[in-house]
Structures are given as structure tokens and as C-alpha cells.
Amino acid sequence: MVDKYAVIGNPIGHSKSPIIHKAFAEQTGEDISYEAILAPLDGFEATIQSLIAQGYKGANVTVPFKFEALNLVYPSNRALDEVAVNTLRFLGGEIRGDSTDGTGLVRDIQQNLGITIAGKRVLLLGAGGAADGVLQPLLNELPASLVITNRTVDKAQTMVKKILSKNHNAFSLTACAFGNLSDAQFDIVINATSTGLTDTALPIPSSVFANGCIAYDMMYGRETPFMKQAREAGAQVADGLGMLVEQAAEAFYIWRGVRPRTQPVIQQLRSA
Ligand code: NDP
Q: In terms of Cα–Cα distance, which of 109, 125, 129 is closest to 117?
């Protein structure tokens, strides 16, 4: 019998996850189905319980349910530093959860774009769920320094404190306001804010983009004001499509134990 999976969100119509997972299944010969399911804003848990009752094996979780999903995960499966999960496995009466966004971003930067994070000066813009999910995986690659900046600067400071309380200043990790970036330069600048969705420019000086800098926007599908500013400042620009496919590949691996090739799927989506 085919193993059933789904992605749950609200809204969900725009999701590319069904196309990606169907491509992975065809490529690897795994017998799965994968569909997009719209959950009511107050009905995430009920939707998950209904999927479990119908025999689904797992689900991806997207906006706005990633934080709520963590509450459903069996306590012994929760890493202490996790704030959100995007990949659920249904194992008997237990729900296991993982976050694959960070792995997806790091793989896209290092393997697909060929840029090593070790030793680089990294600027992370944003302190929402996406920024929080990628922070530890970025630090694991040992950048020379990492600065987090956010409109609500307290949130960036809280992220820094949380990491430093566990890691005892093993690296240079700081938070600052957008307005304090005028003297700083970075090799990797990552936009993890949702400003691309509203075509809003970020109040950052173009001097943050060092010579040879890569500017990475987690958003995909069109050029954002951040990408435009970075391109005009001479930076190499990348969107988040590769991250999307890489985080999906990690979820597929968690579910099926098989690692699909991502390049053909990234190319398929880019040419669509
Ligand atoms: P959240 O809602 O959790 O966080 C939004 C972030 O954007 C906050 O830091 C918020 O700042 C900031 N922000 C929003 N509006 C403005 C503004 N006008 N000016 C400055 N900052 C602003 O969203 P997520 O973290 O879940 O997602 C962020 C982005 O990442 C989205 O575009 C999403 O599509 C993308 N994403 C892409 C993925 C991929 O695979 N490619 C995976 C996950 C996310 P404040 O705290 O001050 O409100």
C-alpha cells in the first residue's frame, strides 16, 4: 500500500512541496503519495490527528503552524534548542519532529552555491522562525563571526543569549539594530525576514556587502528589494529555491531513509 504524506499550512495553495516530493518519489522509486492540506487556523492539531487516524506516515508543516507543531512532538524527541519543527513522523502513538530548514540552507550555500561558511563574516537579517531555525546549523559551520539584526532588536538579542548560554562564547555572535550596521562588512548576508512578501526594502546600508559577498534571500519566485539592493552593490545574489528543495530532501531522507538528488528538481522548478 502507498505510504501517505502531506504538507499542512494556511494558506497552502502556493506550496511547491507536492511537486518536489513527487519528483523525489519518481526519482528514487519510493511508493508514496504527497498532497497539500489546508488546515483551519484554529484546527492544526485536529488536522494532524485526522491524518494519523487515516494512516498517514508523516507531514511537513509550514506557516503558521511550525511553532504549534513542536507542542505535538513527543517530549523525549525534542531538542532543547528547537523552537519550531517542519517535519513530523507518525510512529504508532508517537509524533516525532525535526527541523530541516537549517540543513537545507547550509547545503544550498555550501554544496549548490559552492561557498564555504567556515571563516566567513555572516550577517543574518531577521529573528523570526526561519532565522531561529537556521542559526545553530550556520554556527555549526564555524563562521568567523555572525551578527543578527532585526527590526525588533530584542528578539535578535534573545536568540544570541540563548545560544551563548549553552556555548560559552566559542565564537563571535552578536545582535544589533539595523541602524548600527554602517561600519560593518560581511561575506555572507542572509535575508530571513518576510519583507520580500510585501516588497519592502530593509533599512540596511549597501556597505554591508563586502567584495565578493553572497546575498542570500530565503524568499524565492521573484526579485525582492533586498536582492535588487545587493545586486546593485555588486554582490552575488541567490534566492531560497535551493533551500526549499534541500530542506524537502532532508525530510524525505528522514521519512524514507533514501537521499534524493536535488539538482534535477531545482532545475525542474526553475524552468517551470
Ligand atoms: P516570521 O513571521 O516568523 O518572521 C518574520 C521576520 O521578518 C521577523 O524577523 C520580522 O521582524 C521581519 N519583518 C517583517 N516585516 C518587516 C519589515 N517591514 N521590516 C523589517 N523586518 C520585517 O517569518 P519566517 O521566519 O517563518 O519566514 C521568513 C521568510 O523566510 C519568509 O519570506 C519565508 O517565506 C521564508 N522562508 C523560506 C524557506 C525556504 O525554504 N526557502 C523556509 C522558511 C522560511 P520583527 O521580529 O520585528 O517582526
A: 109
What is the rounded CA–CA span in Å between residue 39 and residue 46? 9
Summarised one tens digit per residue, pLDDT across range 212-261 is: 999 999 999 999 999 999 999 999 999 999 999 999 999 999 999 999 99
CATH 3.40.50.10860 fits 3-99+245-271, yes or no: yes
Q: Where are the domains of the chain?
A: 3-99+245-271, 102-239
The CATH code that applies to domain 102-239 is 3.40.50.720
Its pTM stands at 0.95
* Ligand 1 and 219: CB distance under 6 A: yes
Common-topology check for domains 3-99+245-271 and 102-239: yes
Rounded to whole angstroms, the Cα distance separating 122 from 141 reads 11
CB-based contact 138:106 (threshold 8 Å)? yes
200 lines ligand 1 (CB under 6 A): yes
Report which protein residue has its CA nearest ligand 1's atom 29.
194
The dihedral through the CA atoms of 135, 241, 263, 23 has a sign that is positive
Length of the chain: 272
Q: Whose CA is nearest to atom 46 of ligand 1?
A: 152
